[in-house]
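Hey, can you fold this one?
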Amino acid sequence: MTFDGNFMLGAATSAHQVEGNNVHSDYWVQENLEHSSFLEPSNIACDHYNRYEEDIRMLKSAGLNAYRFSIEWARIEPEKGEFDENEINHYRQVIDCCKEMGVEPIVTLLHFTSPAWLIKEGGWESEKVIEYFARYTSYVIEKLGDRLAYVCTINEANMGLQLAAIAKRYEMMAKAAQNMKEPPVESGKEAEGKVQVGMNFQKMMENMKYQAAENMQAFGTPQPQTFVSARTPEGDIIVMKAHQAAKKEIKKLYPDIRVGITLSLHDLQAVEGGEKYVRDTWDEEFVHYLPYIKDDDFLGVQNYTRTVYGANGQLNPKEDAKLTQMEYEIYPQALEHVIRQVNKDFKGDIIVTENGIAITDDEIRCKFIDDALQGVKNCIDDNIPVKGYCYWSLLDNFEWQKGYSMTFGLIAVDRDTMKREEKPSLRHLGSYI
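Sure. Predicted structure:
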């Protein structure tokens, strides 16, 4: 089984997770608080900021033809209204490097991290973010749009609602357990395994009493509204309006650029009695966004596992289920199921912008890729317009609050020397095109 040359087959990263020294971002501030929920700070990350050419060359030499990466808003606009020409030139060089090597750049304008100044202005619960994000988008596209064919405005726009639901449930259980002097019914690890991003719920709960004061000092508010904060329904709509405003700016400057958003989507399955949970959760994860994305050129589908519901709600994986380092069930068939479900309502193109596995055994990674890509091919054979697949991630990188403990990468990175080591899975993925 192979894909034709028009299919975009590649890997993905995000700026903060690989570049290093993203000192003007909200995450950098949070990582370096005394009572941080992060296992460790990002620091130099993978030094991709300086080594991008080496990394893109490794991607290309393995046979891959696409690279999804993000532009860091906090680098471009480190202070409100002040744009850094040197940083936009850096991203121009990254894009040109892709072009010279025959790799399609798929650019994301916001991948979780924001400038610290934005959070001080109210962050992602303030309507001001719509104007600010549109202005940033306009600047980037004016400078780089002539080199781009695909732009994702916002990564996993629905993540805030997913985190809100999980954090609320975990907080309630933790408080109940505290009152009863018993451990929570659901451990922090189990809660973390239900969301497609690296979170430390246990540590967040332990640090809560300290973090309010530290956040007040850092951001001017005890509860900073970063992009990856538990989001209100009103904040959810603000994110979608920011997407639409950014899309308008892109199309005004370069109408031919293909514009979309990416969503974190689980393969939702029901056992007896769980059907209503599945319907309600799919509505929250996907359906209610349709009015805001129905005219987009493509949707970025991001999937890692399935979620099973029974009569009393979400079920933990079976005892004999194989889990990843992230506590996800290893279930690569989920991707095909999600693509088919999305295609029922969304009529634009589909690009798998993230799909991967955090594990040390690379043979298991190769098998996961085999099964996931078979599902993609099945969808294409049924005339579903899947235009690309980007494995997460190109490099073993900074998995947010989990630090460097999660190994998603096709390429290993020595934490002391930054030396890259290609895993067999890199060329295994490249063999499909």
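Residues 8-430 form a domain with the TIM Barrel fold (CATH 3.20.20.80). Let me know if you want another pass with a different chain boundary.
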